[in-house]
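Kindly go through the following sequence and its backbone structure tokens. Advise at your convenience whether the structure tokens fit the sequence:

___
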Amino acid sequence: MSLFDEDFPQTGFPACTTDAERFARLQLSRTPRIGPVHFQQLIRRFGSALKVIEALPSIARRAGGAIQPAKPEQVEAEIARGEASGARLVVLGDTAYPKLLAQISAAPPVLWILGEHTAFPARAVAIVGARNASAAGQKIAHQLAAQLGEAGYLIVSGLARGIDTQAHQASLKTGTVAVLGGGIDDIYPPENTDLYHSVRAYGALVSESPMGYRARAGDFPRRNRLISGLSLGVIVVEAELRSGSLITARLAGEQGRNVFAVPGSPLDPRCRGTNGLLREGATLCETASDVLETLEAQSGFDEPLHNYRLSQNWAADTLNHASNETLETTIDSLRDRLFHLISLTPTSRDELLRLAQAPAHAGFAALGELEIAGVITHTGNGHYVRV
């Protein structure tokens, strides 16, 4: 049995069982100001994307703004382009949606998957590192990927130069997944065109971006949360102090994943990031055995990683209150109260909910409506300001 033969049921989120609902979930995900968190909140609240699409304009009007769902013809064109390329559309709520990825707080609403194998096992490890990696760094990345692949682990990386390239090349025959910043048809960097086609032939390419979208610099940190989210652990092989690999490591820690770092010379700036991770508590990785010992000691690959945050608690709370007729009334009263508390000075979500005396499930929904309407915006780190 191949690593890719496993298929896991999606739990904790309304299932997607019809083509019409799948179309609506893609349409909702492509609607301006609807990010992954809003996507989940709204579907949990209304029960389906079809109902959310119908309710969106009135939600925005109540909050003093306006929004229009993505045009159906735009969605149809994306689906047609995906089908023409041979890619598969998977939405959050599908049984084929990667189980580990579904557990992260901002799981991508939709994925395009291209390749011979489009199901993902829980036994997966990410290997990332410097694009301008040293010969020694590339050698150890290749060895780690080959040995972990032989031990039955899927290797996940980002198709970048250097460490990523070695990780994919070494695991082509055992199972590898490349997560792209652009659309599934965006080959970047161009010199990895042959590798792109090899990964397609032996593994899978994954992207949450629309078909035809060309990656920009700001897309790669967003891409990195998928790399860590698809994996039980992330191995960093060479990384400077300010690098995308360290972002991936930070995201892995936030997602409850294991973080491994390969030590290096303090004289090489490409090793300062990995040595820093070790000082901060990452697991030392010199051989594949260091990774295997840690991961094999953790039983229950099929169990949730219990890394849910406030957004997941909100989701569970919302499900418990979904049939309560007073929920919408509560959201209506909180929306105005929260809007008047928000100014041009960033204010934390927790402070806003405290001052408004808002329960989390209704407070999150009210803040989400104000964001969707375009009258407030999230500035990062849980802070909001007026637009």
In short: DSSP finds 16 helices and twelve strands in the chain.
